[in-house]
Automatic annotation (TrEMBL):
GO molecular function, one term: transmembrane transporter activity
Domain Major facilitator superfamily (MFS) profile: start-end pairs: 27-473
One GO BP annotation of this record: response to antibiotic
NCBIfam families registered for this protein in UniProt: efflux_EmrB
Protein species of origin: Streptomyces actuosus
Cellular localisation: Cell membrane
GO cellular component: plasma membrane
Protein name: MFS transporter
Alphabetic keyword roster: Antibiotic resistance, Cell membrane, Membrane, Transmembrane, Transmembrane helix, Transport
InterPro entries in the record: EmrB-like (IPR004638), MFS (IPR011701), MFS_dom (IPR020846), MFS_trans_sf (IPR036259)
Entry keyword annotation includes Phosphoprotein: no
Phylogenetic placement of the source organism: Bacteria, Bacillati, Actinomycetota, Actinomycetes, Kitasatosporales
Amino acid sequence: MAGRGEGAGGFPAPASVRLASPTGRWLVLTTVLGSSMALLDSTVVNVALPRIGRDLGADLAALQWTVNAYLVTLAGLILLGGALGDRYGRRKVFVVGVVWFAAASLLCGLAPNAGVLIAARALQGVGGALLTPGSLALIQASFHPDDRGRAVGLWSGFGGIGAAVGPFLGGWLVDGPGWRWVFLLNVPLAAVCVPVALGHVPESSDGRADHGRFDALGAGLGALALALLTYALIEAREGSLVVAVTGVAGVAAAVAFVVVERRRPDPMMPLDVFRSRQFTAVNLVTLCVYAAFGGFFFLAALQLQVVAGWSALGAGTALLPTTVLMLLFSARSGALADRIGPRIPLTVGPLLCAAAMLLMLRVGADADYLTDVLPALLVMGTGMVTLVAPLTATVLASVDSARAGLASGINNAAARAAGLVAVAALPLLAGMGPEAYRSATEFDRAFDKAMVWCAGVLVLGAVVAVATVRRPVPGCARPECRRHGSVLAPPLEGRKPSESNR
């Protein structure tokens, strides 16, 4: 018979784990390890792209798919991943996600050609959609309310450190043992994470999630629409009938997704949440800023290696300031936005980032880090610090507090979708040919055009913010993740039990 405060299997009962207990420490360790796998992968792959292209004989389109195949499945399935954990057990789904992610990473590391690598990256995204929401959900469902805030802070802080280390570690691996170790590194991390989770982390689920059916059709249509539209954008330079048909099919899948979500009694993404003008407005800002961020971090790593001639380690290390600034100051930025409201930060932040994009025009063949690269990245980091925490807080505040986790999931998925569209579209808009990354002159010219596009999208985001964002009403939901280090998506917030009824 379980003792007081214990659940099944001798584990502590849900919401009773104390941070100072052995179970609390194991829980933080395993969730940090799991989420770090996904964070590391999202930051290190960009640094490895030139070497991957050279070793596998891949053109620019294949490099775009190496990034986007992962984002297609992650963005399309991340909401469903959270719901699966609520019904079947958060630890169980988290462990499945870690094992799935590690197996797909192994396949990436052993890929003999670009086609296998792209397919494995899509499988990685499925694993990421299971483990990413699951790691935070485990903490929020397991820790005692008095310790939950500190536990979330440790999780987000250590996860941010992992994101910061990612480009440096990725560059070192690419220049040393090789780019395949960027993926193979996930296997030993999973080998530590899974036994710890099974042996020391309590299971939890939401009893109210046992009824109703999952919106698998909605999730499939969403991922299909993203995949088809991404293919059409990447291959649009060919101008073939297949590309046109694929683009039309992508639009049709997107329309079908909206129809299904509107008619289902238990949709993955309830469209009525967009009745809040504030929620819709902030998601439009999210689409603008994270499209620019996704395009920037994809192209900047290539620019520093292809044009400036830096090593992978040099390029990865060069990008660290943005993440470090976010880790150090995102909590303070959120506190400032609480006092002055989100409208000014969400206007000024994108404008600072737009200025950083224009400063990147100075980065050419003879770029100096201190005078050319670092100023742009410091301005970029300052802009991201200014806007990311207020953006998350405003998303949560724009809906009923019981739906805050759902709102955060939609916002996170929107950011990732915006990034993948940017990675697909920017090379087309900038006039990059299939072999552009093999020519320093051609890539440099196209990179400058792409940075202007990114700056324009950020200015559009600032205009949307100043025209539509208002101060939240008192007493609304507030973010638990005060410190954030990912540069490619806003932080996720936990789903309340009352949200998990699908």
